[in-house]
Each structure stands twice: as structure tokens, then as C-alpha cells.
Amino acid sequence: MVWHPVDSTGECLRESGGATGSERLYYEEISCLYPSLSNTYMKWEYETDYIFKFSSKMEANPWIPLVACALYVVAIFSGQAYMKNRPAWNWRNTLAFWNLLLSVFSFVGFMRVAPQVLHNIYYYGLRDNVCESPYSLVGAGPVANWGLYFLLSKFAELFDTFFIVIHKKKLLFLHWYHHITVLYCCWHTWVNETPTGLIFCAVNFGVHAIMYFYYFLMAVRCKPKWFNPIVITVTQIAQMVVGVFLTFSSLNYVGSEGCWANMTNIQGTLVMYASYLFLFLQFFFKRYGVGIRKTKKVD
């Protein structure tokens, strides 16, 4: 059974929906369960007919993220070759605006998706959150809208690298590897309707809201002394820990009756998050000098 708000009356009505196991899980539209939240939503956020059309196009065109990633890699290395013997550009103001835009977008996305995720975690068990139909966990309302915006933002975030290249900053493997894999993973997760995508979306929105705001402050040279960059890395590592935990937990349920988790997606996502965790920990220890220090042997 699915709960959703009705525009004309504002009341919650029931529609047929999916279920997991022997017990039925009821989808409860977050803005319907908590009426105070409905006042913060705009009418266009409830317009979701295009989502199904867009999803069918995505399913029919799996080449799109592959081509986008290929062009991205070509642009990176050709751009670095072009800039090699040229002076760095000064696009600091544009960079500041770009980071602020992504920070605000991520913050709004987090405020839209996180309440639904917290509700689902509080009322439903681990199996439901990693196995239940997305139509039950998310439905086709504002949260689904923001899930789609989240996916599309991964294409936009590829432009982060443009600023690194034109400013001739050091480009880490972690940076472009992360952009490529997360783009394709988000696309694959959406097309295969993998339930864990909702939690990943909320966590990533939250981390990016903080991260891009930090980058904005750095670009305008207004970073307060108390805002230590180690906080950004720690939140990123925490995100990877959550990702590894959820995908590993999903392996226990994939293939069981009523579980929507896709084995290929879960395995790929687990490898992705595990590699992120390794690379971010490596970056953390190298950047902040955390580890065992060698001492000189005294003769």
C-alpha cells in the first residue's frame, strides 16, 4: 500500500504497492505524514510524470554515461596538455559562484531527501531499507524528483575538474576516478531501481553541502580559522563507511523473495565504495600526517 498526498484535498489516500516478505511495508509520503513539511514544498516538486518518461529513456540509452565519462577523461588530459606551457587562468570568482551553487543545491537536496530516509530508518528494519521497492520507500513524489536531480548533478560536477586544470592545480587520481565511477554508479542504481540509492543520495547531499561551501569560502578567501579541512575528509570517509556497510549488508538479502536489490549493482557499488574508502584513508594519512612516525636510531 502506498500513501501519498492528494493536491485537491491534501488528504492521504492509499494505492496498491509492493511488499517485502510476509509483511507489507506501507509507503508514507513524508510531506503527508508531517504536514508542517508540506508548507515548504513547491507545486513543481510534486510534478513527477516526466520521471517515468526520463527513466525509460535512461534504460534505453546506457551508452550516455559511458560516453560522458570517456569525453571527460579525454578533456582532462588534453586540457592539461594545452595548459602545460601556458600561464594559469584566474577564474576565482567563477569558481566561487560554482561552489556556492553546488553547496546550496546539495543543502536543499539534503533537506528534501534526509527526512524520508530518517523516517524509513526509524520505522523500518535494515532489510526493508536495502530491499524494499523504491516505489514503497520513495514513491513518486518530491523525494523521487530530488533523486533524479541528484543523478543529473553528477554530470554537472564533472566541471569541477575544469577549474583544477585551468588553474594548473595538482589533479589527484582520487578526484577524477571518483567523478567517473560515481556518475556511472548513480545511473546504474537509478535504472535498476536499487533501494539503497535513497540513503546514498541523502548522505552524499549532506557531505557535498559542507564540502562545496568550504570550497566556496576558500575561493573567496574567507575561510574561518576554526573550519579545519580535516572535517571535510572525515565526513567523506564516514560516507564511504556507510556505503560499504549498506552494500555489504545488502549481499545477505540479494536474491531473496521480494528483494529489489540488484546483484550486479550491489557488487559494483561495494567495490566502488571500498576503493573510495581505501583512497580517502590514504589521502587522509598522507595529507594530515597521521600515522606511525619513524624515529632515528641513536648509536
Overview of this structure, please?
With 299 residues, the protein is mainly α. It has one domain. Helix content is 65%, strand content 3%. Strands 1-2 form a two-stranded antiparallel ribbon. α4 runs parallel beside α9, α5 packs antiparallel against α11 and α8 packs antiparallel against α10. The longest helix has 32 residues. The termini are far apart. The N terminus and C terminus are likely disordered.
Residue windows where pLDDT falls under 50 for at least 5 positions: 1-26, 292-299
| Tally of individual domains | 1
Total number of β-strand segments? 2
Q: What is the general shape? A: globular
The run of helices and strands is EEHHHHHHHHHHHHH
Q: Characterize the biggest β-sheet.
A: 2 strands, antiparallel
Class by SSE composition: mainly alpha
Order of strands in the sheet with most strands: 1-2
Residues in helices, as a percent range: 55-70%
Number of helices: 13
Question: What percent strand?
Answer: under 5%
Mean pLDDT: 86
Taking all Cα atoms into account, the compactness measure Rg is 21 Å
| First-to-last CA distance | 77 Å
Organism: Seminavis robusta
Membrane topology: Multi-pass membrane protein
Family: Belongs to the ELO family.
Keywords: Fatty acid biosynthesis, Fatty acid metabolism, Lipid biosynthesis, Lipid metabolism, Membrane, Transferase, Transmembrane, Transmembrane helix
